[in-house]
Amino acid sequence: MQNNTISFRVQPGGTLRGEARVPGDKSISHRSIMLGALAEGTTRVTGFLEAEDCLATMNAFRAMGVEIEGPENGRVCIQGVGLHGLRAPKDPLYLGNSGTSMRLLCGLLAGQHFDSVLTGDVSLSRRPMKRVTEPLRSMGAVVETTETGTAPLKIKAGGGLRGIRYDMPVASAQVKSCLLLAGLYGVGQTCVREPAPTRDHTERMLAGFSYPVDRKGDTVCIQPDGKLVACDIDVPSDISSAAFFMVGAAIAEGADVTLQHVGINPTRTGVLDILRLMDADIQVLNTREMGGEPVADIRIRSSRLRGVEIPEELVPLAIDEFPVLFVAAACAEGETRLTGAEELRVKESDRIQVMADGLRILGIDAQPTPDGMIVRGGKLSGGRINSHGDHRIAMAFSMAALRAGGSIEIEDCANVNTSFPGFVELARKMGLNITAICGEIL
Ligand code: S3P
């Protein structure tokens, strides 16, 4: 199922200029399908991310009998089947590269009256699933994993779930969302406490579907047996995709980029805070609210970045942006230190090791640590990088070419389509000299 025959070649120099709307938010797009499917009535989504990860979620719900039209130009129409209307899928549900699909679906499926099996690609089959299966078991779910706690996940129709109070050991929105979805089916209340704030799209969207969610401080609680009422969802642009162009514009000479309609949910804006600490020239303009999520246009211009110690409380709020933030650090004056980010080691790749290896190939002093990295800003050379099939690594190193002394070749880039279809075309339009090549670079 894996296609690793696309490489990127990016010529050095150039700049980024102009206005762009990057594709829809991945986290919100997944949730729009899940909650739309469980709602009563028709949910219409605009701005949906037509990328492999979200299509995997969509196909899983189709396989469970949900009628979904689209996607067409970001439009999707879901005929909700209600909380108890899903049907047993005939085959295992293949979720590709998508951790969000697997972890959230695991919670939702634990509450169904049918068996199901969740599988994924090589990367997803290596990622830790005990973080969801253990609390689900304490709710009464019957879920089997491999011996090491990885997929395939075999979920059995059990004797019913009971609500729990769960203190999450890791700050994870996927774990929180998994348990809230299972909590829709438990007996009694389910409460999840987070050690640090994580993205709250599930809670916001449940409220948008008229399902009460109770937040008190660091704990969010849900009661079972309510109902979700269909609604319209306008998905903002993904700040995690915008981040590549923000860093690109900050590090390039003479750059001036405006990214339109970007979601600026405060549980996602760590990248803005970190870039501002690094002295990036960023303006957040025209802030507005769209269907329960704050949105703005973000303008960013060439900046003289400086190295910083990244405050640990910002880590969960920027968790997907570190690959490109390491590129910013490589172009900054002085040292940048990241700590408290061991989660990066269990993303689509080990993002600490893979980024440190790549930066070193480009001549940067990057020292990986168990929970972060120390990067000393310097002069980037060209070189050949292996992205290890990780979309965000591929896009981060593409931007590095704006400041490199030679061309950068990046291998194994097909998975950019899991989150950012059209990345190469948009990056070219904005001024990056990037080409996608089918087949390995020799
Ligand atoms: C996501 C949560 C984050 C993030 C992932 C998407 C979500 O994972 O890294 O890309 O949609 O809930 P964790 O919650 O595991 O940190």
Can you describe this structure?
The chain is an alpha/beta fold. The protein folds into 2 domains: about 5-25 and about 235-440, Alpha-beta prism (UDP-n-acetylglucosamine1-carboxyvinyl-transferase, Chain); about 25-235, Enolpyruvate transferase domain (UDP-n-acetylglucosamine1-carboxyvinyl-transferase, Chain). The chain has helices at about 25-40, 50-65, 100-110, 130-140, 175-185, 200-210, 240-250, 270-275, 320-330, 350-360, 390-400, 425-430, and strands at about 5-10, 15-20, 40-45, 65-70, 75-80, 95, 115-120, 140-145, 155, 160, 165, 185, 190-195, 215, 220, 235, 255-265, 280-290, 295-300, 335-340, 365-370, 370-375, 385, 410, 435-440. A 4-stranded mixed sheet has the order 23-24-1-25. A 4-stranded mixed sheet has the order 2-17-19-18. Strands 4-5-3-16 form a 4-stranded mixed sheet, covered by helices on one side. Helix 9 (about 320-330) runs parallel beside helix 10 and helix 9 packs parallel to helix 11 (about 390-400). The structure holds shikimate-3-phosphate (S3P). Shikimate-3-phosphate binds near residues 174, 199, 319 and 343. Shikimate-3-phosphate binds near residues 100, 173 and 199.
Q: Quick one: CATH class of the largest domain?
A: Alpha Beta
Number of strands: 25
CATH superfamily of the largest domain: Enolpyruvate transferase domain
Helical content class: 25-40%
Number of helical runs? Answer: 12
Report the average pLDDT across residues: 97
SS content category: alpha/beta
**Biggest beta-sheet profile:** 4 strands, mixed
What CATH calls the topology of the largest domain is UDP-n-acetylglucosamine1-carboxyvinyl-transferase, Chain
What's the structural domain tally?
2
Strands of the widest sheet, in order across it, are 23-24-1-25
